[in-house]
Design a protein that fits this description.
Chain lengths: ~400, ~150
């Protein structure tokens, strides 16, 4: 590891290597991630203040060959397993959740979904370009009237021969306006069942970016857009997975996405801890560094405890996912990954929000400014409790795994 | 907050000339970036008003620079202290020379920053400082190599 790699992160990698196999190749990959993360610090800070998408993120990832971290090597990716992928996202989380969002959508919701459900031709066509950075991917499920409940989706498709015509709007789509290819979900016209997934090219006639959502509460460096499809034509070669089984595609993507967001939240907590350590040991009030005040130490203890308790849960989830990837026909294992990834995302996103709140508190008045290194974490982690499954949906999901499927409150 | 930056430059001019320029207060005064008022005192101290910009934060600082610890053709230290806009900084930079045409100049700068700027955190400040230092050295290198 480089000297610049944050010590707690390095310690976690070392601890993990005693529990599971972290190869030299994995470590080299994480070295590259570390360098790329360091290179993004300045641009992320500047773009956050400007409230603009940080176009340096794809540029730097491409430079270090990190656009396709979890994509199989035969498609040009790094072939990182879930744990190493999680560690890479965790490191980028130290830079900010805007970076994490770009990566999670491109890699977890986009690339891994095509890798799991695509046919060989689709994998060759989309994954090789996604891995090289030639294309950026996005995932479009949410609509103005369909958030937690995909059944309320209005986007529909009409089938004519070997062609499908998609009409509708997708809302709050991360990477929406910067993506080249988007995984889009739609119901057959006039139906509320049999959702299908399609891979849509942004150059296709009928595709438009209706709105770039810049009036967000935070996450300024991440692109969030509203997309519309007006009778957009795709062919049968663009159907992802089996026609009519798109819900399985959507849910599997969210499962990967949740592990990614939970991992990013670990990075946020780690950055909060690093920042408050520096701040409280150098800022002097009442004649001593504020870190010597007991009530300040309580905040620090909370941040450290939140990080450590979330960290092992997220790693355990990634390891479970690794196990499931090796045996996808095992439904019990799938259920277990679904359950634990919901818990990991629920716990880590709430913990990160709490850590960021404590960090802002310890930075005092300056903490309320986005010039401080911690304010963005507080603003941004709020969305981690909403996107890719709200706190409430995660709670219902977990509760139903305890009580049984007949208690599923959202079905 | 403390920061350390280090690096090395290769210059095409003779070592002796590099040393002369490096220890010349007038040359240092001319090489200061974003300086508004620069005065070279009779004891060699350089006083200047400079604008230190970190992204959207600009601090107007009154700084004093002094060249110390001179070892002819080998070493010099540049001490800089400044304050303004709610921040203070103290930077000690050491320069070591070796080789000749090209002359290799190794440098190391230790900065102590307090106040508003320090609040931005070392990771952000380090990133900006590295960028700024690169600009400064590019300027110095160009000025040195362009000197008659």
């Amino acid at each position: 590891m480089t000297a610049s790699m944050e010590s707690l992160f390095e310690r976690a990698v070392n601890d993990l290597s005693r529990l599971t196999k972290i190869t030299d190749e994995d470590r080299n990959l994480l070295e590259q991630v570390d360098q790329a993360a360091n290179e993004l610090v300045v641009s992320e800070f500047e773009k956050y203040i400007e409230r603009k998408f940080n176009e340096k993120v794809p540029e730097v990832l491409k430079k270090y060959g990190l656009m396709g971290v979890p994509i199989l090597k035969k498609y040009g990716g790094k072939g990182a397993k879930p744990l190493v992928h999680a560690l890479s996202i965790e490191r980028f989380g130290q830079v900010g959740l805007g970076v994490v969002t770009f990566i999670d959508v491109h890699q977890s919701l986009g690339s891994l979904t095509i890798q799991q459900w695509g046919n060989e031709e689709q994998k060759r066509r989309y994954l090789t370009k996604a891995a090289s950075g030639e294309t950026i991917l996005a995932y479009a499920l949410t609509e103005p009237e369909a958030g937690s409940d995909p059944a309320s989706m209005k986007t529909s498709y009409r089938k004519e021969g070997n062609s499908y015509y998609i009409t509708g709007s997708k809302y709050l789509i991360s990477n929406g306006s910067v993506a080249d290819s988007i995984v889009v979900f739609a119901y057959p016209e006039g139906q509320r069942k049999g959702m299908s997934a399609f891979i849509v090219d942004k150059k296709a006639a009928g595709f438009s970016v209706d709105m770039r959502l810049e009036e967000k509460m935070g996450l300024f460096t991440s692109d969030t857009s509203m997309l519309s499809f007006d009778n957009l034509q795709v062919s049968k070669d663009d159907v992802l997975g089996e026609e009519g089984k798109g819900l399985n595609v959507a849910y599997s993507a969210l499962l990967n996405g949740r592990i990614g967001i939970a991992s990013g939240c670990l990075g946020v907590m780690e950055d909060c801890l690093n920042q408050v350590k520096e701040r409280t040991s150098t800022r002097v009030q009442h004649g001593k560094p504020i870190g010597k005040h007991q009530l300040v130490q309580r905040h620090i203890a909370r941040i450290a405890s939140n990080l450590e308790s979330s960290r092992w849960l997220v790693y355990q989830t990634a390891l479970k996912k690794e196990q499931y990837d090796g045996n996808m026909s095992e439904l019990n294992l799938r259920g277990e990954v679904d359950r634990i990834s919901a818990i990991a995302k629920y716990v880590a996103s709430r913990a990160a929000f709490e850590c960021a709140d404590s960090a802002v508190q310890l930075f005092g008045g300056f903490g309320y400014s986005i010039l401080s290194p911690v304010a963005k974490h507080l603003i941004d982690t709020r969305v981690a409790r909403i996107y890719e499954g709200t706190d409430e949906i995660m709670e219902l999901k977990v509760a139903s795994t305890v009580l049984g499927r007949e208690f599923e409150a959202y079905s | 907050m403390q920061l350390r930056l280090e690096g090395a430059e290769e210059l095409s001019i003779p070592r002796e000339r590099v040393y002369q320029l490096l220890t010349n207060p007038d040359f240092i005064a001319r090489s200061l970036p974003d300086a508004q008022e620069v005065i070279v005192q009779s004891d060699g101290t350089v006083e200047a008003k400079i604008k230190v910009g970190i992204s959207f934060v600009t601090a107007n600082m009154q700084i004093k620079l002094k060249i110390t610890d001179k070892v002819p053709n080998q070493h010099a230290r540049l001490m800089a202290e400044g304050s303004g806009s709610g921040s203070t900084m103290k930077i000690t930079s050491d320069f070591d020379l070796d080789g000749d045409r090209p002359t290799r100049m190794k440098w190391k700068a230790d900065a102590e920053i307090t106040g508003l700027m320090a609040g931005m955190g070392s990771s952000i400040l380090k990133g900006f400082s590295e960028k700024k230092v690169r600009e400064i050295f590019d300027g110095i290198k160009k000025a040195m190599e362009g000197q008659p």
